[in-house]
Write a structure and sequence with these properties.
alpha/beta, Rossmann fold
Length: about 250
């Protein structure tokens, strides 16, 4: 079942083109990797999916992005769309709230007021983010005082508190130590049973460990999409893909 379909996507900032002619489908409950060097258009793609062009008057998105059979450009309730699409950015941003309130914020905004129900949501999300055991005795402490790796997992828990159908991660491990990175990778492997995941990463081996299929972006184009292992060991359509995954550039 197709969760997200992209057709002839073009993204421009003023006169500069960030992405052009991008088309592919993402299947439900798969981890879809996007790799490529800096300025390849990876983050711009995520912004377009989540309608963040609303915040940038210079950003223009053309083509079509269809989420659950609905063209996202035609969705009037953009905030409702974002509740279904969680995003985790490269640097963890802990809200100036307690650990508990960081996770409970979105459910409260959605109308959940019962403390017992909020308790269940907070524990479930922190557990899914592999953080519960480390913080369960200090939920009233500020989330911003956690370590970098813990804050990143708190960010994931906060994204999960919306019960998203699609979770997008943009270089989640850029400020996280290797041990915590592996813990989060284990979390993502489990989450794929419940949500569809788009994983943007500069670490090609991370994509190889996690992604079912991977797209290679370069200079604003999607060079190719294929089964992840095939991009590393099989025949590729474009030699630039092989050169990138083997570290010859990027």
């Amino acid at each position: 079942m197709v969760k997200l379909s992209v057709s002839d996507l073009q993204i421009r900032y003023g006169g500069a083109t960030a992405l052009e002619g991008v088309s592919f489908d993402i299947q439900e409950h798969e981890i879809f990797g996007i790799i490529g060097p800096a300025n390849a258009g990876k983050t711009s793609f995520l912004k377009a999916v989540n309608r963040m062009d609303m915040f940038d008057p210079d950003m223009r998105v053309d083509g079509k992005i269809v989420f659950n059979d609905v063209d996202v450009s035609k969705i009037r309730n953009v905030y409702g769309l974002r509740r279904r699409i969680g995003v985790v950015f490269p640097l963890p941003v802990g809200l100036p709230l307690s650990i508990y309130d960081n996770v409970a914020l979105s459910p409260r905004l959605n109308g959940q007021k019962k403390k017992a129900e909020l308790d269940i949501i907070v524990e479930r999300c922190l557990t899914r983010a592999a953080l519960w055991d480390e913080v369960k005795d200090r939920l009233d402490s500020l989330g911003s005082l956690l370590s970098g790796g813990q804050q990143q997992r708190l960010t994931i828990a906060r994204a999960l508190s919306q019960d998203p159908e699609l979770l997008m991660l943009d270089e989640f491990s850029i400020a996280v130590d290797p041990v915590t990175t592996m813990r989060i990778e284990d979390v993502l492997k489990e989450l794929r049973k419940e949500v569809t995941i788009i994983l943007v990463t500069n670490l090609v081996q991370q994509a190889r460990r996690l992604a079912d299929r991977t797209a290679f972006f370069l200079e604003g184009q999607c060079v190719e999409v294929g089964m992840t292992e095939d991009l590393f060991t099989g025949e590729v359509k474009d030699q630039r893909t092989r050169d990138y995954v083997e570290g010859r550039f990027g």
